[in-house]
Predict the 3D structure of the following.
Amino acid sequence: MEKKNLTLLIMAAGMGSRFGGLKQIEPFGPHGEFLTDYSIYDAIQAGFNKVVFIIKEEHLNDFKETIGKRIESFIPVQYAFQKLEMIPDGFLVPETRKKPWGTAHAIYCAKDFIEENFLVINADDFYGRDAFVRAAEFLKNMESNHDVSSYGLIGYYIQNTLTDHGSVKRGVCISDQEYLKAMIESNVSLLNNKIVAQPLDGRSEFEVTGDNLVSMNMFCFSPIIFSYIEEKMNIFFKENQFQLEECEFLMPDVLTQAIEEKKATVQIIPTEAKWMGVTYKEDKDGVVSSLEDLIEKGVYPEELWEK
């Protein structure tokens, strides 16, 4: 059986504002490893054979001299730039605009680097081995066409994605059995022993149970998604032409549109993995301690990229 190429697309152009720095290159492992190192290690174990980073162009040297240098002998690495000026013709970037345009725009910026099925993740999240194994299995068997594309979303149980130090942004999944119907982008908090989601679009807050599935921006796509994103990006900029200072072009919104238009199905693939991340500076000690435990259990070697 022919081995399928699988690419890991890592979104690393975010500002890291709540954490207070460029958290993608914050060391967490015993030999200076970043959270991204552990994701790439898990992806290689699961069968991925290329990595593409989406970064700001000004961060290229930082990435090359740190993580790039460590992993390039283990897996091919490429860098795509998320640039503010990569927008539809006829629109100008407001002078006050500083942050990137959002996750759908970030993925679109990698279109010239990917010709195979691929997995999208955030650079600053720890996803766990099980998630990558399930994603690889899905991607190897995933077939899409231009009429109806079949995509996947790795779903995390919300109780496995919370922090003790404040709210977290999650895409709360609304599903029809195993298929996604919609995602409600929300700030999620543990309040008085209840998990409460506050939708970012201003809708009323609602309570969810710990086994409700949420998106951690871990998407399984084929390259067909790029043309659909481009189509929706043109519409997005027209609809938001008077609020380009702050609006964001988000992948959950694009996927919801594709589902509503019957252009795509999105299968939710549950994982028992526990998320770890550094939404707040206070999260770091807990993440470091958890990684030490995983190393002691033999899940990871102490020096991740030891020759």
Notes: The two ends are 30 Å apart (CA to CA). The mean pLDDT is 89.
